[in-house]
Design brief:
36% helix, UDP-N-acetylmuramoyl-L-alanine:D-glutamate ligase, alpha/beta
């Protein structure tokens, strides 16, 4: 599998002892790219970064994770974004962002999509998220949408995680409108109960019927250990055990999606893919920050 994840990877500051913070690099599509690479997929990341020291460190970090930088653009006038995590006693997280003028926002400014799409002939899968969409202006959203349509014509699979975070959007209504447009052209859609609640979408079945491709795969995580799988032929519900203790839920969904995409495309087994994905997400929840330290990640535990 050759997969390209598109979005924004940032500086992450996560809590350490004595009011200190650990500095690393993360961001939803970046996290998914890292886990895909660790699982064994040939992974590319597409974004725009600066030419400053932190941007260079982040690029080196991605390369160390065996992520190809072929689609990483450099903007000498901008820097990468930053976010800080705070957790409550249940491990649930709150984010503070400094990304309003980051390089990633301007990714599509100078891309000519028809020529650029030709570089993707060897790519099988594209992965993006609602957060990816939230950082682009109207012009670049349209450009991105048309770019994905070109890739669909090449039979490239489009996967989207709704991942609703309203901070970057103009309004909830605008977010809903854009997300519905992109989910209609996707082959695989990931979403959660929390996403639908934030977007004030009350009927999951109606949302799927009206706003997704009938032939697409839908994976709905309810947040209570229940995962529902939808495709054109069936609906299956899986009930899974949750962690008794949670340290930090940051990156759990990103890891779940990476494992599901990798395993499902490898063996087409819904049950096995969901089980392995949940297992990886549980492991991430025991860890501070979005990414498990590499020395604690054992690939064979999350693949079949």
């Amino acid at each position: 599998m050759r997969i390209c994840s598109i979005g924004e990877c940032m500086v992450e500051l996560n809590p350490a002892k004595n009011n200190n913070y650990n500095l690393t690099f993360a961001g939803d599509t970046g996290n998914t790219a890292v886990y895909l690479s660790r699982l064994g997929a040939k992974t590319y990341y597409m974004t725009s970064i600066g030419t400053d020291k932190l941007s260079k460190k982040m690029e080196a970090f991605l390369q160390k994770e065996n992520i190809n930088n072929k689609f990483i653009f450099k903007n000498p006038k901008k820097n990468i974004g930053l976010y800080l995590i705070e957790n409550n006693k249940f491990g649930e997280r709150h984010f503070y962002y400094w990304r309003s003028d980051s390089a990633a926002k301007y990714l599509f400014d100078k891309i000519e999509i028809n020529n650029f799409a030709k570089l993707f002939n060897d790519i099988n899968v594209i992965y993006l998220s609602g957060i990816t969409l939230s950082i682009y202006n109207d012009k670049n959203l349209k450009k991105f949408y048309n770019f994905l349509k070109l890739l669909r014509k090449k039979n490239i699979t489009i996967c989207i995680d709704i991942n609703a975070r309203l901070t970057n959007w103009k309004s909830r209504e605008f977010a809903v409108r854009v997300l519905k447009k992109f989910t209609k052209i996707a082959n695989m859609v990931f979403f959660t109960h929390e996403d639908l609640k934030l977007l004030k979408i009350k009927n999951v079945n109606l949302f799927i019927k009206n706003n997704t491709n009938k032939k697409s795969i839908k994976v709905f995580r309810k947040g209570n250990g229940e995962v529902i799988f939808f495709d054109s032929n069936k609906r299956e519900t899986f009930r899974l055990n949750l962690n008794k203790k949670v340290v930090d839920t940051t990156g759990c969904g990103d890891a779940f999606n990476a494992s599901f995409i990798f395993n499902y495309f490898k063996n087409n087994s819904i049950k096995k893919s969901i089980s392995l994905s949940h297992k990886l997400a549980k492991k991430v929840a025991y860890n501070k920050g979005a990414l498990i330290p590499k020395k604690f990640f054992i690939r064979k535990d999350y693949t079949n």
